[in-house]
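Researcher: Predict the fold of Exodeoxyribonuclease 8.
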Amino acid sequence: MIIETPGLYKGISNEDYHRSPGISNSGIRLILDCPKIYYYRYLSGEYERKESADKKIGTAVHTLVLEPDTFFDRYLIVDAMPTKPNRRSTYETRRKYEDFITSAGGREILTEDDYLQAGLMANNIINHAAFKKVKGTGCFEDSIMWLDPDSGAPLRTRPDFYNDFLIIDIKTAKDVRRAAFARHIYEYGYHSQAAMACDGLTAATGIPYNMVVLFAVAKEPPYLVQPYVLKGQALEQGRADYKKGAAIYQQCLITNTWPGYEEAILDIDLPAYAYRSNDNE
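Model: Structure tokens for Exodeoxyribonuclease 8 follow.
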């Protein structure tokens, strides 16, 4: 079921959510960089989206934490992935791979090692004292579409979890220490994603949301967990960023023009840290 009108929707698959009209945070980040790249990846139909190994494990962690009863309906665990055929592959290799994909029945495929890693990461979140305290009863993976009141752009968000007063988002990262994860938040636009979740839920429910708790879990053993509250100025900056992207998106839709980079020769220099003192030479 593709979302076609503003509202809050339950039971929408992740695939249908991403196929629905409107722009989400991942698109906002891309269109702020270059509308032409956004068009190619999301609207041209020419781009084949491939999920990275880290992204696949992160999605599995989400499912194990928030919807564990659905995990084995969504994932197939195997010893190892079969070789994906190419143009030089034999008929036998192609047939084995096709039979393997058919046996998966549409489920995502995880190796046993990936499943073990995702399970350890998920368990550390589930057993974290702060997670037990704030999770309680709420809603998981609901999909929301609303219209930005400033630009009129259709926007989408899909919070991991929310109740009547807060939103929880689970994030995986190489380093979950405060300074490193703060850079991670900015680099991946988690502040704008959080602002979109707050504004989308407020638009859909009428309840004012102004706080997001990020549960950051490290990707490497011992898979430590550190929760952070994102609010105040960080959310305001995220709101400014996503609204700027929404305005660009809406203008591109109206004009059917998706600009690339500047058609000019630009000056460039080395980054500041590259200039070292030569006093000791």
